[in-house]
Amino acid sequence: MKKRIAAISTIFCIICFSYVYAAQLRWEIPQNERLEIVRTSSVKYFMDSNLIKNYGERNIINLTCYEKEHDGSRVKGDFTVYQKDEEKEIFKKLDEYYSDFKILTNGKFIVDDKYIMPNVRHLPAFPSKDIPQKGKWQENGEIFFNNFPVPFAITFPVSYTLSEIKTINGTEIAVIDYSFLIKKFFKDAYVSGMPLKISGKNTGTLLWDIQNKRPYQMDDEYFIQFIFPDAKNKLFSAEFQMKIATRFTMYRNTDDEEKKKAIKDIEDVLPKGGGISVDDDKRGIVLRLGEVLFDFDSYRLKPQSVQSLDEAAKIIRDKYPDREIIVEGHTDNIGSADYNQRLSESRANSVAKHLKEKGLGDKLSYRGYGKDRPLFDNATAEGRSKNRRVEIIIKMK
Q: Does 142 reside within a domain?
């Protein structure tokens, strides 16, 4: 009898152990919520094995679910690329892309051919069955390259291991190690600008929120090398080595009433007549700084303008400490395009640096648009004056 009880107890323990240390991994973004993905890379760039440049790169990706289906989430995405030289403090915004695609519950992406983003697809992807601790599986991943004369995709197997399941801040987290290799040869290698060969390797660790069905954190190392023929058909290589930290935050979409209240709260605190107005558009809440903050033909902040900017910084720091902040510079159409571009960038950078000194969060960047985005008619002196501005965008969508 005792032996039978012991055997039953042993079976029960095995069942419990299997239950605790196995997981069904699934993807889900709740409807009307936004998943923000911040990928920050330290990059080493080599030519023919010679180190050319160290720099930082950042991608901020926002995926907003607008429709739920039984097998996945339809999302609208914006993908923004930022870069900064090694010695710089603040990321500069370079490019922005938009997409509309579906994420299946197993992590596979369905992307229309007209969209180049997301360029990394089906990673991670999961099997349909529960995965035990130390369980392994393999699914195909894909990278789409659009920065060559002929765009192309590379598909490759990704190997996964569920290393462990642990609890972080009360949440059950799957720790997943993964790796993949890239190797691609090209028939059209001698088309100008196309590589002969691409090879690469990625290894990383992904933390997955089991209950909420979304990524929690990821860290990986990525190596990729391109072999090109030069004009004399001699070969040369371009190589990138990256260490990447990826962090994820879920936001509930802000409705119109909440935005109106937020704008009023900011307006109530800002000094009257301080040269800062508050507005909203599709990007979020916009603090608009007129040219009164700068002397003519200068990007240095006037001392008397700093108080208004400090108040704006305090509001953003206190109310929106985790939001992405983008500083944009704009000019009128007087002067050359190059001059206006440089001035708009320098003014945006000055404001961004000041905000950073006042303790704004890490997700801070700047960009200059020169004369390309006027709000008013440049044919009038009043319109030109209003177009000479810097905007601080608090990302809400």
A: yes
Inter-residue contact 329 to 347 (CB < 8 Å):
yes
- Prediction pTM value: 0.86
Looking at every residue in the chain, the average pLDDT score rounds to 88
Q: Are residues 65 and 179 in the same domain?
A: yes
Residue 18 belongs to a domain: no
Same domain, 330 and 296: yes
Is 12 contained in some domain?
Answer: no
Q: Looking at the structure, do residues 178 and 325 belong to the same domain, yes or no?
A: no
Q: How many domains does the chain have?
A: 2
Q: What is the 3-state secondary structure (H, E, C) of the chain?
A: CHHHHHHHHHHHHHHHHHHHCEECCCCCCCCCEEEEEEEEEEEEEEECCEEEEEEEEEEEEEEEEEEEECCEEEEEEEEEEEEEECCCCCEEEEEEEEEEEEEECCCCEEECCCCCCCCEECCCCCCCCCEECCCEEEEEEEEEECCCCCCEEEEEEEEEEEEEEEEECCEEEEEEEEEEEEEEECCCCCCCCCCCEEEEEEEEEEEEECCCCEEEEEEEEEEEEEEEECCCCCEEEEEEEEEEEEEEEEEECCCHHHHHHHHHHHHHHCCCCCCEEEEEECCEEEEEEEHHHECCCCCCECHHHHHHHHHHHHHHHHHCCCCCEEEEEECCCCCCHHHHHHHHHHHHHHHHHHHHHCCCCCCEEEEECCCCCCCCCCCCHHHHHHHCEEEEEEECC
Q: Are residues 261 and 286 in the same domain?
A: yes
| Residue 233: predicted pLDDT | 78
225 and 287 in a common domain:
no
Q: Does residue 131 sit in the same domain as residue 209? A: yes
Distances, alpha carbon 80 to alpha carbons 24, 59, 60, 284, 309, in Å:
32, 6, 5, 15, 26
Question: What is the model's pLDDT at position 190?
Answer: 61
One domain for residues 153 and 296 = no
Mean pLDDT to the nearest integer, 160-187: 94
Token pair of 77, please? 């995405």
pLDDT interval class at 15 (50, 70, 90)? very low
Domain end, chosen from 206, 227, 251, is at 251
Do 230 and 325 fall into the same domain?
no
Judge contact between 93 and 365, C-beta under 8 A.
Answer: yes
Supply the CATH number for residue 281's domain.
3.30.1330.60
